[in-house]
Structure prediction request, 229 residues.
Amino acid sequence: NAGVMQNPRHLVRRRGQEARLRCSPMKGHSHVYWYRQLPEEGLKFMVYLQKENIIDESGMPKERFSAEFPKEGPSILRIQQVVRGDSAAYFCASSLALVGVRTEAFFGQGTRLTVV
Amino acid sequence: AQSVTQLDSQVPVFEEAPVELRCNYSSSVSVYLFWYVQYPNQGLQLLLKYLSGSTLVESINGFEAEFNKSQTSFHLRKPSVHISDTAEYFCAVSKAAGNKLTFGGGTRVLVKP
Prediction:
């Protein structure tokens, strides 16, 4: 059973380009979370999705960022018109249900985005 | 809203010495508490968690953490570290059956021979 798969592992974009980050959750997991880790900081929650629905996007910047988790295929975090401040590691996590007694969030290895 | 403070950003320690990583949190509701470990260029792995019951929780590789409600702390300890414990450690909280984790800033542990 493969873990949470993120690709690409490393992504370089020029300012103004678009970045697409993909996350395939663990088999059977329908809950997906995206976190951002800025240099020298901890992880910050961005968005929580279930299949085809955004449940909580309280941590998403209001502009340029969007996320989806379609019925088929991986979850996508999309950043339009990237700026240098978007350079960070983006982690995806998945869980069977809400994090709780019988469930935990499993993290992918992250996508390291560098904006030049 | 919850917040998590990890007081030490870096902790150098000699091999076979004990280590304690401090974590304090604030929350107005009941929380679950977690410690994650991140090895270089890797994702986060769950080390241990407190959900309810015994306030002392242990991991399979010798780490333990104690939930102290009155001090709102969840410090992580290991009595004797190995070189392989060199990593960054993150304390996190979530609301009971919540949908997101709130992380502390992390503590880098560097184990020296």
